[in-house]
Structures are given as structure tokens and as C-alpha cells.
Automatic annotation (TrEMBL):
It comes from Nothocercus julius. The gene is Prdm15_1. The keyword Ribosomal protein does not apply. This is PRD15 protein. Residues 38-152 form the SET domain. It comes from the Eukaryota. Keywords: Transcription, Transcription regulation. One of its GO terms (biological process) is regulation of gene expression. SUPFAM superfamilies: SET domain (SSF82199). GO terms for cellular component: nucleus. InterPro entries: SET_dom, SET_dom_sf, Zinc_finger. The keyword Secreted does not apply.
Amino acid sequence: CEDCGKSLIGECKLHGPLIRAKDRVIPSRARLTLPHYLTLRVLEIRAGNQQILGVFAKRVIQKRTQFGPYVGQLSTKLTHYDESRLVLQVLKDGGKYFLDTPDEDCGNWMMFVRLARNQEEQTLVAYQHCGEVYFTTVKPIEPHTELKVWYAADYAKFMEASAVFIKEESDVCPLPAVTTKEPVDPWICSSCRNAFATFALLESHQCINKDRV
């Protein structure tokens, strides 16, 4: 205590406690990259205070607006999987890599965009261009609408996933169905019997029975 000149454990009984000043909280890299006309909203809080976030429009976003590229760490294995987000892969130097985002300081705001469950709620398509992944709007997005994404047709084929099609206008023809040699049904691990939406997820998952097989 500078007032009585004593070194104390805890607060000074004569002059009281110190006034504690906290550092300013700095947003993560991913949150700082969010465009000014988008906002993050907490949709759910799970066990351990885990926040489930969504990206929402603050004003009208025109059709054919491109976002990206997606920022993540290239990895041969998927170390972070969230069932509400898209799994992304790219071709780099002849190899196929996951775009992994283990935490908010390794990616940009696009890591918060949730996947579309059907074509009605889909507002974005994800696709690969020159070794990078971009998201582009497939229809005008109204204020307070959540941005949700699914694979473009060619990228769905690359990811061995089913395609979701958007038909917003009567003069737009539906895209042809994607035909692949791989089935579009869920991929099931032969050891633990867990089901996965794509082959990439099946290939990367850590099976608890692998060492026994």
C-alpha cells in the first residue's frame, strides 16, 4: 500500500482495496473482418457457455454479391467439425486439403455462416476458384435475414455431396442434377456405424474402433 508504506497480502485494512481497471476486450480476427452491413447474432447457448452464432444482413444485399475468399488453415485432416457449418476443401498444388478453422483467430467472418437445410432458406452458394473458396448470393437478401450457404453444383460434386438448387425466377431453368459414381445417401463408417453427410467427413473422422480392426 503506497499510503501506509506496507507490503500486504490482499487489501489494506486501513485504506481499502485497489480500484481494478480491466483491459479492453479485443474482438477476434474473424469478428473484425465482418462487413459493416452484416451482423452476428447469438442463436443458442449450449453447455460450457458455447455460443451458436449466425450471420444476418443489416440492409438489402443484392443478388450476385461475392464474399471471400474464405480464410482457414490448410490441413490434410479435419480437426474441427461443426454440424451446422459447411465442410470445405480445395485443390492446392495437386493435393486436396481441408479449409480448417479451429478458432476465430485463424479465420474470417465466413466461418460463422451456417449451412442451408433446404433450398428455401439458402441464400449463398460456395464454390472453388483458383484454389480459394468464395460465397456468392443467389438471390437478394432482405434485412434481418440470415445468410445460409450450400455447395454450388460443381463444388458439390467435388465434395461428394448432394446438390441444392435455387430457382427464384420463372425464366431461370433448374440446374441439371449432379450425377456421381458415389451415392448421395449418408456415408456410414463400417467400424463404428456413425453416419456422415459426405465422404470427406467419413474419411477424416476419428473412429474409436479403428485400432481394433
